[in-house]
Amino acid sequence: MTDHATAELWPGERTEAARRLLLAAVESFARRGFHATTTRDIATAAGMSPAALYIHYPSKAALLAEISRTGHQSTLDLVERAEASSTEPVEQMRRLVEEFTRWHAHGHTVGRIVNNELHALPEEDFAAVAELRIRIEETVLRIIARGVDAGRFEVPDQRTAARAVTSLGIDVSRWYTERSSESPEELGRRYAVLVLRMLGAAGG
Amino acid sequence: MTDHATAELWPGERTEAARRLLLAAVESFARRGFHATTTRDIATAAGMSPAALYIHYPSKAALLAEISRTGHQSTLDLVERAEASSTEPVEQMRRLVEEFTRWHAHGHTVGRIVNNELHALPEEDFAAVAELRIRIEETVLRIIARGVDAGRFEVPDQRTAARAVTSLGIDVSRWYTERSSESPEELGRRYAVLVLRMLGAAGG
Question: Cα dihedral angle (B51, B52, B54, B55), rounded to 10 degrees?
């Protein structure tokens, strides 16, 4: 696993076997893509038999769904924490971009799967994840709107700006590697400065 | 094919059969990912036999390499045209972001393949594409540096800013669909405004 954040995603309440399978699935999907990965590949990577895998997950799609739901929930949580961290839109946005960027750099392997394999999710899981994505986007939009109302941001098209903010963060997962020159934290700080300028932040 | 730009990518000098195979490969890679696509899938989608495919391309990797090289060459061309279009860095950057964004919205299917399947390229093709990617990034960086020198931009970290500019454009391919509310051209104009602000453009 090249990805420190992965282990953090599935905390203690899961069985050790389930966590091993999730990690193995992340590794396999990242290497071959979802479609070319078999449940046997995942079981082997986790040091289990396919039969042992099925005790925990009925299919590779169920593993993808769990990875995608927990990944999206975790980014929604940090976005909502950023909003709750201050009453000041500039501070909320700074925190949001710092944390959202850091998450996608640190967890770039999971981030890539979560964002590129959406179309492979079973319908019901897709709907659940789409709902989480909308809540993330709406939180970003709410902070922008509040900042504009308070005269702290100056934004010609709020929906396009919100899209650009989330897009910049999400795309970090595509290009970031452990060989990148900036740490996830440093990249988060730099991106926050760029985004606040993009939003025409007074004092940003 | 949901993607108008695709046909523009391979102009007249190719045989009709080669173009049909490239289009079929784009469609198949987009649907299943590169690894899960077989040469038979591509041949069938092109209305040919696998044997007929091999007359034109020795492997699916050769098709991916051609799609990736032409896609990258086409974006490098537009980036260089933007640089040549003016002597004024603000105008160069405005044009660059408008065209780069438009390309990735219009050609989102090809853009997604070209950016997500890099790791699947044969070594030599990967090196050629990596070289094109560096030239794109260096052009963006050169315009930023020239703008800073001329007092037209104010940028704390030029390399991070250049990365953010290309990242915003590339990620359009991930999220843009024909159902998006903005046309590729309108999105390009809006993104150019956001990027010029990000670069602290005087009069941007």
Answer: 130
Residues from chain B that touch A197, judged by Cβ atoms under 8 A, are 197-198, 200
| Better pLDDT: B12 or A136 | A136
Complex prediction ipTM: 0.90
Report CA B175 to chain centroid distance, whole Å: 14
Q: Residues A204, A193: contact at Cβ < 8 Å?
A: yes
Closest Cα in chain A, distance from residue B162 (Å): 11
Angle between helices A184-198 and A158-175 (to 10 degrees): 160
Task: Please check whether residue A135 is in contact with residue A86, taking contact to mean a CB–CB distance below 8 angstroms.
Answer: no
For chain B, count helices (H), then strands (E).
10, 0
User: Cα-flanking dihedrals φ and ψ of residue A59, to 5°?
Assistant: -165, 170
Closest CA to A5 of A81, A63, A75: A75
Domains present along chain A, CATH in parentheses: 4-56 (1.10.10.60), 60-198 (1.10.357.10)
Q: Distance between CA A71 and CA A61 in Å, rounded? A: 15
What dihedral angle (degrees, nearest 10) is formed by the CA atoms of B23, B24, B29, B30? Answer: 60
Residue ranges in A85-122 assigned as alpha helix (H):
89-106, 108-116
Mutate to test the interface with A, among B100, B113, B153, B167 (most CBs of A within 10 A): B167
Residue A105, both tokens: 């750099």
Q: In whole angstroms, give the CA distance from residue B197 to residue B195.
A: 5
A160 min Cα distance to partner chain B (Å): 7
How many beta-carbon pairs under 8 angstroms link A with B? 77
Quick one: tokens of A145?
A: 């709107």
**pLDDT tens digit sequence for A51-96:** 999 999 999 999 999 999 999 999 999 999 999 999 999 999 999 9
Which amino acid is residue A176, in one-letter code?
Y
In whole angstroms, what is the distance from residue A178 CA to residue A85 CA? Answer: 29
Calculate how close chain B gets to A14, using CA atoms only, in Å: 31
Which letter does DSSP use for residue A122 in this model?
-
